[in-house]
Write a structure and sequence with these properties.
heterodimer; A: 243 residues; alpha/beta; TIM Barrel; 8-stranded parallel sheet; 10 helices; 19% strand; B: alpha/beta; 11 helices
């Protein structure tokens, strides 16, 4: 079964990463685990230079059909973000937009983030939103009420209160969630399926911060049906990301 | 991916009991079923009651659970140094019952490794020659622990290390021969190679945090690492055996 990775990061910055070619590493991983597409955003754009990081992703997805891109935006740089969206989202190999974690920028229901979403509406693509504390999930729900037509993919960070976050977004059908090795609490996958249903849970490798073997091991260990596993690792991403 | 490694596994970081922070089933039955699935020979566990409520009550419950497991679950005693009164007696009681290891949880009990009661506790454990694990997720704590034990013939395993303090922990483990690293923080196969290059494979002790976390998320990065089978065996069982038997 081919896998579709709903979220990975280009960026070689954590202590557990080896020096060397990160793209070659991702390609090796894709081959080993039969990953058809890796959806990738730039860690550099999120934490460093917005344009430079997005440009590296644009170059990667233009050259390598295994990768699809997310454009990273920054609520502190509305004009630059608008330019980044305009430059990249008109290309077929970009899937959506990544909002940086609120701890790096602003809450999801802040004026700045709302302005960004307004600018992005014309591109009709999903957003990736990191949720670190349950307040972030509440803010995300508030945001979806202002923009009911936009889809959001909620991604955990290490230490997130994901149990509460899942409950908060349970009934908000334009929010999907990812299973990632960044959050390994046992039962969290089963809880996501139980609350959100089997169509709103996607697999994200979390590369290069975390190796896909963590999350694939979790999915293997979780008490799921084979159909649910297939939905998580492939089918739902096709629908959600319009692949 | 293979469910079992084919290698012997002893897990130094597991839990049993009611978990007040989330609705996660930490019953002995769940832990035993995970062990069976992945071929884990023994699991060293703490009872949640000892961590989140009262050490004596929790350690008593741990003894009971261990007895009922037929020797598969090995209890690790925990003490909150902030309770202070009677900690020497509690250590003695548990040693008489056969406990070989202690574990401490400053993060969950709101204390820091540099506090005086913990220093006193470390002195007692040094006199008795009892190794301990200590959760170390915060920046600065590994350095404080190193300061406490650097001149002592006492073995310490740092567990629950986080991404933010991994560099500090590697520095500390590398610099002192009696400090080890529990592996649940290593989430990349390459991470094993890097950490082993830095501190030596003899300093790594396998722990999963199960059933609190998916066991596979801790085991698979090790199995997929480039470490030799001999080195994996050291991480999975031999290093811990050496610590406990010493």
């Amino acid at each position: 079964m081919p896998l579709i990775d709903a979220y990975a990061e280009l960026g070689w910055w954590t202590i557990q990463n080896r020096d060397g070619d990160e793209i070659a590493m991702m390609e090796r991983v894709a081959q080993r685990y039969n990953i058809e597409f890796i959806s990738v955003a730039s860690a550099e754009a999120m934490r460093g230079d917005l344009s430079l990081g997005n440009r590296k992703v644009a170059e990667l997805v233009a050259q390598n059909p295994k990768f699809r891109g997310y454009v990273v935006v920054n609520p502190n740089h509305l004009e630059a973000s608008s330019e980044e969206m305009k430059r990249n989202l008109t290309k077929g190999n970009f899937l959506g937009i990544v909002l940086p974690p609120p701890s790096l920028a602003h809450p999801f229901n802040s004026w700045r983030t709302m302005e960004l979403i307004k600018m992005a509406r014309r591109y009709d693509c999903p957003f990736v939103a990191f949720v670190e504390i349950s307040f972030d999930a509440q803010a995300l729900v508030a945001l979806t009420k202002s923009f009911p037509g936009i889809k959001f993919l909620m991604v955990p960070n290490q230490g997130s209160d994901w149990w509460a976050a899942l409950k908060i977004v349970e009934d908000v059908t334009n929010i999907s969630v990812v299973v990632s090795g960044l959050l390994t609490e046992r039962g969290i996958i089963e809880q996501a399926i139980s609350l959100l249903g089997e169509r709103r849970v996607l697999w994200a490798s979390g590369m290069t911060r975390v190796h896909p073997t963590c999350s694939l091991g979790m999915i293997q260990e979780a008490e799921l049906t084979e159909r649910q596993r297939n939905m998580i690792v492939e089918v739902n991403a096709k629908h959600w990301l319009s692949l | 991916m293979a469910a079992q490694s084919g290698l012997p596994i002893v897990d130094c970081n597991t839990w049993v009991g009611f978990y007040p922070r989330q609705a996660i089933d930490l019953s002995p039955q769940v832990l035993l079923s995970i062990m069976k699935r992945y071929g884990v020979a023994r699991a060293l566990f703490v009872h949640t009651t000892a961590v989140f409520y009262d050490a004596r009550t929790g350690n008593d419950l741990a003894v009971q659970v261990a007895k009922e497991s037929g020797g598969l679950l090995i209890p690790v005693a925990s003490i909150n140094p902030m309770q202070y009164r009677g900690i020497g007696e509690e250590i003695d009681r548990r040693l008489q019952q056969g406990f070989r290891l202690f574990r401490f949880f400053p993060q969950w009990q709101n204390w820091q490794p540099k506090v005086a009661p913990f220093r006193e506790l470390v002195n007692i454990l040094t006199e008795k020659g009892v190794p301990f694990l200590i959760d170390c997720p915060k920046v600065g704590w590994a350095t404080e622990i190193a300061d406490l034990v650097q001149d002592k013939p006492l073995t310490v395993v740092l567990s629950d290390v986080s991404e933010v303090n991994m560099g500090e922990v590697l520095c500390v483990v590398k610099s002192l021969p009696n400090i080890y690293l529990e592996t649940s923080c290593i989430i990349q196969p390459d991470g094993y190679d890097l950490v082993a290059d830095e501190i030596g494979v003899d300093k790594l002790v396998f722990g999963s945090n199960a059933p609190l976390h998916y066991f596979a998320s801790a085991l698979f990065p090790l199995l997929h690492s480039a470490l030799s089978d001999e080195d994996k065996r050291k991480v999975l069982v031999e290093n811990l055996r050496r610590i406990v038997q010493a």
